[in-house]
C-alpha cells in the first residue's frame, strides 16, 4: 500500500512541473492566488524585483509594541487563513512562576519525570540548550524572578501543510516580522528560537516511505522519502521493522533527519563508510523566501540543492520533505569500549552511552603514561576511520591530578572477529607503553537498533568545536603539536575533550554527496572534537559567563594554532567562533553567500552564524550572544 503510493507520487514527479512534485499529502495543500485575494500580507514575493539589502526595509524587525507590529485583528486574519493553527504559546516553565499559568503539578513534572517522556519535543517553544534564549523562564522549585517570553517566538505556526509554511513565510516577509524555523529544538546556538518571531514549527511534518529502487541522475538504488519533521528514532525503528534497507541517520534518537542535522553536515556512526547526513539527499522539497514551493535536485534548482546539503539550515528555505539515499539491507557494526585512568579520583558514568559493554578501566601509574596511551589511541584512529570506523574518545580532567579516558570503536561492516583482530594492535601498543590493557573481544550490533524517543532534558552547556585536519597525522611534528595542545586543554585547562574520529571524505560521500556544500575542511578532517566547560552555567552572571567563555577561547586558540587548515563543525560550535565563515564553510563560503543573496534578498530566513547572517544582529540588553533582543540590520 505505502509502496504503491510512493511509486505513484514518484510517477507524478516525472509528469508535473516542479512546484507540484509532492511526496506527501501535506505537500498537496498549497497557497493559491485565490487564497490570497485581497489579503496583501500573504502575497508571494519576487526575488527579481526586490530591493536587496537595506533600502526600503526598516532597520529592525518589528517587535510587539512597535507601530508596525500587526494588530490583533491582522494576526486573527492570518490565523483564519491557517485554519486555526496559529499558536501564541508561553514557555512551559511558566507553570513554576506565580501568575496566570502557575501549575504546581506541571512544574513538578518539569523538575522530575519529564526525561521519561517526549514532552520537550512536542512543545512548540522549547529549545534544549536554553542559554541562547536568555534563560528567562526555566523550571525551578522556588523562583525568585519572573518568567518572560525572552528569546522565544511570539507566535508559532503548527505547520500541517506546505500552505501553512507559505503563509508564514509570506506574512513574515511582507510585514517585516522576524521568522524562525523549529524542528526538534536541539540546536546548541539558538538557531531554532528568536525574540518577537513568527516561528514555523515543522515537527508534525511526519511521513516516511520506502522505495526499493529509485533512480535520479547517476544514482540507482533503494531510497526513503522522509517528512521534514521526522525524527531519527521514527526512521530507525521503521527500518528495523522492515529489515530491508540501511539508512544513514543521526545516532541521537530525537534529532531531526532532514532539518539542522543534515543541512548543516550531520555526523553519524556510518560517516566513514557512507558519508555525512548531507550526503544522503537525493532531492529536497522546499518553501523558499518568496513563498514558492520548489524541488531542488541534480536536475533543477541546482544551486539550492548544493546549498541545502551542508550550507547550514534556516538559511535558504524550509524543507518539507526529502528523498534519502538507502543502502543494502541490515548493516551492522562490531566494536568495543575500553578505558583507562590515573589518579585518586575515579570517573563516574560517562556522558556517552556506548552500545558495547565497557571493560573494567585500567589503572595507569602516572600522567605521562596516560597521555602516551591517549596519543596511541589517537594515532590508531586514523586507520580505523579509513577502514570505515567511527572512534569516540573522551579525555577528561577529574581534578586532584586525576585523568580519565574512555574510548569506543564502531567498525561498520566488520564481523566481531574482524573488528577484534583489527583493534588488537592498539592494545599491544598500550601494553608496550605500560598500560595493562588485555585484549578485548568485539561485539556486533545492528545499525537499525530499536530506539526510544525519551531522555531529553534541558541543559546549559557551553562548548566549542575543532575539525582536525588529516595533515596533523601525516608528520610526527604535526602530530606532536596537536597532542600537546589537547593535553594542555585537558590537564591545565581542566576541560573535557571529546573527539569523534571519522573520515567523511569525498570517496565515501559518493554520488551526489561529493558535490554537496559540506566544507572541504570537513572532508579532509580525521576528527571532530568538542571541548566542554565543565560547569553548568545556568546561575552564572553575564560577566562570569563571558569570563568562562574567554578562558575556553584561549585554549581553543591553542588547538587552532596546532591544527592549521582546520575548521569547526557548525552544528556543534561556539556561537562566538572566530572567522566562522571560513571555519564552517571553507572555500565554499563565497558561493553560499551568493546563493543566499539570490534566493533570499530580503533576509527572511535568519539564524546566527549562517551565510548572509552578517547583515543582521540581535541587540541584547546584556551583551550576551543570545536571541533575546531585537533583530536589526548591521549595514553589512
Ligand atoms: C543531544 C544531542 C546530540 C547530538 N548529536 C549529534 C550527532 O550525533 N551528530 C551531529 O552532527 N550533530 C549532533 N547534534 C547537533 C545537531 O546536529 C544540531 O543540534 C542540529 O541543529 C539539530 O537539528 P534539528 O533540526 O533536529 O533541530 P532544531 O534545533 O529544531 O533546528 C536546527 C536548525 O535547523 C533549522 N531547521 C530545522 N528544520 C528545518 C527544516 N525542515 N527546514 C529548514 N531549516 C530547518 C532550524 O531553523 C535551526 O536553524 C546533537 C545535538 C544534541 C542536543
Ligand atoms: C477583502 O475581501 C473580502 C471577501 O473575500 C471582503 O469581505 C473584504 O471586505 C475585503 N476587504 C478589503 C479591505 O477590501
Ligand atoms: C487561532 O484560532 C484557533 C481556532 O479558532 C484558536 O483556538 C487559537 O487560539 C487561535 N490562535 C491565536 C493565536 O489566537
Ligand atoms: C530522569 O531524571 C531523574 C532526576 O531528575 C533521574 O533520577 C532519572 O534517572 C532520569 N531518568 C532517565 C530515564 O534519564
Ligand atoms: C515581576 O513582575 C512583577 C509584576 O509585573 C513586578 O512587580 C516585579 O518587580 C517583577 N519581579 C522581578 C524580579 O522582576
Ligand atoms: C499541532 O498540530 C498537530 C496536528 O498536526 C496536533 O496533533 C498537535 O496537538 C498540535 N499542537 C499544538 C500545540 O497545537
Ligand atoms: C527486500 O529486498 C529484496 C531486494 O533487495 C527483495 O527481494 C525482498 O522482497 C525485500 N523484502 C521485503 C520484506 O520487502
Ligand atoms: C580532591 O580530593 C579531596 C580530598 O580527598 C576531596 O575532598 C575533593 O572532593 C577531591 N576533589 C575532586 C574534584 O575530586
Ligand atoms: C562490506 O564487507 C564486505 C566483505 O568484506 C565487502 O564485500 C563489502 O564491499 C563491504 N561493504 C561496504 C559498503 O564497504
Ligand atoms: C594485567 O591485567 C591482568 C588482567 O586484568 C591481570 O591478571 C594482571 O595481573 C595485570 N598485570 C599487572 C602487571 O598489573
Ligand atoms: C531491530 O532491533 C532489535 C533490538 O534493538 C535488534 O535485536 C534487531 O537485530 C534489529 N533488527 C534489524 C534488522 O536491524
Describe the 3D structure.
The chain has 636 residues and is an alpha+beta fold. It has four domains: 40-204 and 594-633, Uridine Diphospho-n-acetylenolpyruvylglucosamine Reductase, domain 2, CATH 3.30.43; 206-325, Uridine Diphospho-n-acetylenolpyruvylglucosamine Reductase, domain 3; 332-393 and 405-446, no CATH class; 463-574, 2-Layer Sandwich (Alpha-Beta Plaits). Helix content is 28%, strand content 19%. It is built from 17 helices and 19 strands. It has helices spanning 2-15, 33-36, 72-81, 104-111, 162-175, 232-242, 260-263, 271-274, 302-307, 367-386, 416-432, 476-492, 506-513, 520-523, 542-562, 580-585, 589-599, and strands spanning 86-87, 155-158, 178-182, 197-201, 208-216, 219-227, 281-287, 293-297, 318-325, 332-342, 362-363, 389-399, 402-412, 443-446, 463-469, 496-501, 525-532, 616-618, 631-633. The strands form four sheets. Strands 10, 11, 12, 13, 14, 15, 16 and 17 form an eight-stranded mixed beta sheet that branches. The chain has a five-stranded antiparallel beta sheet with strand order 5-6-9-7-8. A hairpin with a 2-residue loop joins strand 12 and strand 13 (402-412). Helix 10 runs antiparallel to helix 11 and helix 12 (476-492) packs antiparallel against helix 15 (542-562). Mean pLDDT is 94; it is low at 1-20. The chain binds flavin-adenine dinucleotide and 2-acetamido-2-deoxy-beta-D-glucopyranose (10 copies). One 2-acetamido-2-deoxy-beta-D-glucopyranose is lined by residues 345, 399-400. Residues 1-21 form the signal peptide. This is FAD-binding PCMH-type domain-containing protein. Belongs to the oxygen-dependent FAD-linked oxidoreductase family.
Amino acid at each position: 500500500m505505502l509502496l504503491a503510493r510512493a511509486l505513484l507520487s514518484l510517477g507524478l514527479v516525472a509528469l508535473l512541473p516542479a512546484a507540484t512534485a509532492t511526496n506527501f499529502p501535506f505537500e498537496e495543500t498549497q497557497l493559491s492566488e485565490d487564497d490570497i485575494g485581497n489579503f496583501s500580507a500573504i502575497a508571494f514575493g519576487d526575488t527579481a524585483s526586490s530591493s536587496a539589502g537595506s533600502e526600503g526595509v526598516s532597520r529592525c524587525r518589528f517587535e510587539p509594541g512597535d507601530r508596525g507590529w500587526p494588530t490583533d485583528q491582522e494576526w486573527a486574519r492570518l490565523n483564519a487563513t491557517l485554519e486555526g493553527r496559529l499558536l501564541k504559546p508561553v514557555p512551559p516553565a511558566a507553570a513554576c512562576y506565580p501568575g496566570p499559568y502557575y501549575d504546581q503539578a506541571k512544574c513538578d513534572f518539569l523538575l522530575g519525570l519529564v526525561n521519561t517522556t517526549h514532552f520537550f519535543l512536542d512543545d512548540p517553544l522549547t529549545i534544549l540548550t536554553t542559554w541562547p534564549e536568555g534563560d528567562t523562564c526555566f523550571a525551578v522549585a522556588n523562583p525568585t524572578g519572573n518568567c518572560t517570553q525572552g528569546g522565544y517566538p511570539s507566535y508559532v505556526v503548527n505547520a500541517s501543510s506546505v500552505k501553512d509554511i507559505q503563509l508564514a513565510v509570506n506574512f513574515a516577509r511582507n510585514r517585516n516580522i522576524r521568522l524562525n524555523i523549529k524542528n526538534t529544538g536541539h540546536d546548541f546556538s539558538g538557531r531554532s528560537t528568536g525574540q518577537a518571531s513568527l516561528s514555523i514549527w515543522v515537527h508534525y511534518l511526519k511521513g516516511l516511505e520506502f522505495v526499493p529502487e529509485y533512480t535520479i541522475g547517476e544514482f540507482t538504488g533503494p531510497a526513503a522519502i522522509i517528512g521534514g519533521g521526522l525524527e531519527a528514532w521514527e526512521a530507525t525503528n521503521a527500518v528495523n521493522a522492515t529489515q530491508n534497507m540501511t539508512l544513514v541517520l543521526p545516532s541521537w534518537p530525537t534529532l531531526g533527519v532532514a532539518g539542522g542535522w543534515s543541512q548543516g553536515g550531520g555526523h553519524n556512526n556510518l560517516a566513514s563508510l557512507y558519508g555525512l547526513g548531507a550526503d544522503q539527499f537525493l532531492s529536497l522539497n522546499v518553501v523558499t523566501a518568496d513563498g514558492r514551493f520548489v524541488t531542488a535536485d541534480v536536475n533543477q534548482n541546482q544551486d539550492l540543492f548544493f546549498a541545502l546539503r551542508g550550507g547550514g539550515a534556516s538559511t535558504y528555505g524550509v524543507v518539507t520533505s526529502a528523498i534519502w539515499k538507502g543502502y543494502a539491507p541490515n548493516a551492522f557494526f562490531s566494536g568495543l569500549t575500553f578505558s583507562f585512568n590515573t589518579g585518586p579520583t575515579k570517573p563516574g558514568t560517562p556522558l556517552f552511552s556506548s552500545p558495547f559493554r565497557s571493560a573494567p578501566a585500567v589503572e595507569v601509574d602516572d600522567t605521562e603514561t596516560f597521555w602516551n596511551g591517549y596519543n596511541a589511541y589517537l594515532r590508531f584512529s586514523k586507520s580505523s576511520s579509513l577502514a570505515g570506523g567511527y572512534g569516540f574518545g573522551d579525555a577528561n580532567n577529574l581534578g586532584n591530578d586525576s585523568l580519565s579516558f574512555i574510548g569506543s570503536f564502531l567498525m561498520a561492516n566488520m564481523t566481531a572477529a574482524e573488528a577484534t583482530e583489527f583493534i588488537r594492535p592498539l592494545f599491544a601498543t598500550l601494553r608496550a607503553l605500560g598500560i595493562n590493557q588485555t585484549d578485548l573481544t568485539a561485539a556486533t550490533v545492528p545499525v537499525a537498533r530499536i530506539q526510544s524517543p525519551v531522555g531529553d532534558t534541558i541543559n546549559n552547556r557551553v562548548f566549542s568545536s575543532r575539525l582536525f585536519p588529516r595533515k596533523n597525522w601525516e608528520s610526527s611534528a604535526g602530530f606532536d603539536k596537536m597532542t600537546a595542545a589537547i593535553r594542555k586543554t585537558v590537564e591545565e585547562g581542566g576541560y573535557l575533550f571529546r573527539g569523534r574520529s571519522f573520515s567523511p571524505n569525498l570517496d565515501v560521500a559518493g554520488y551526489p554527496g561529493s558535490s554537496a556544500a559540506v566544507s572541504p575542511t570537513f572532508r579532509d578532517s580525521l576528527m571532530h572534537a568538542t571541548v566542554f566547560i565543565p560547569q553548568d552555567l545556568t546561575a552564572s552572571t553575564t560577566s562570569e559567563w563571558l569570563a568562562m567563555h574567554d578562558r575556553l577561547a584561549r585554549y581553543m586558540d591553542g588547538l587552532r594554532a596546532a591544527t592549521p587548515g582546520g575548521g569547526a563543525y557548525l552544528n556543534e560550535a561556539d556561537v562566538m567562533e572566530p572567522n566562522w565563515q571560513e571555519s564552517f564553510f571553507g572555500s565554499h563560503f563565497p558561493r553560499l553567500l551568493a546563493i543566499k543573496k539570490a534566493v533570499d534578498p530580503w533576509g527572511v530566513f535568519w539564524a546566527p552564524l549562517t551565510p548572509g547572517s552578517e547583515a543582521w544582529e540581535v541587540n541584547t540588553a546584556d551583551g550576551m550572544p543570545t536571541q533575546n533582543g531585537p533583530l536589526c540590520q548591521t549595514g553589512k
